[in-house]
Amino acid sequence: MKNDEWKDKLTDVQYKVTRLGGTERAFSGELYLEKREGEYFCVCCNHLLFTSEMKYDSGCGWPSFFSEHLDAKIKRIEDYSHGMARIEIRCNNCDAHLGHVFNDGPRENGGERYCVNSASMIFHEK
Q: Three-state SS for 76?
């Protein structure tokens, strides 16, 4: 999809986050406190990313997941922007920026924390 098509399809915040690699303000995303059972899909291409069983409250201000769906195959990219060494995560299907993954998640679930922008996802309740 071309840049203008993404701008027409997405809200300003969704475009800034997914296509320009931005970040929504902590504690501001509509999916941060989501507790219902369901699935989380990429807002750009509707690719399945996470399920509610993988979500947990990390207190970081963004939706957090300890694992990705097996079919998600989320891309990991080294990110040295803003004076930090992080791992950026992107949709494997459309290359949308989702957020970052850190090694401070629940140890009993592998120790990872996928810190994801609400603006990069759509939630479908089961």
A: strand
Q: Global pTM?
A: 0.95
Half-sphere exposure of 30 (CA within 13 A, CB side): 8
Which of the residues are catalytic? 115
What homologous superfamily is domain 3-125 in, according to CATH? Peptide methionine sulfoxide reductase. (2.170.150.20)
> What is the rounded CA–CA span in Å between residue 88 and residue 77?
5
Residue 121: helix, strand or coil by DSSP? strand
Overall residue count recorded for the chain in this entry? 126
pLDDT at 52 over 90: yes
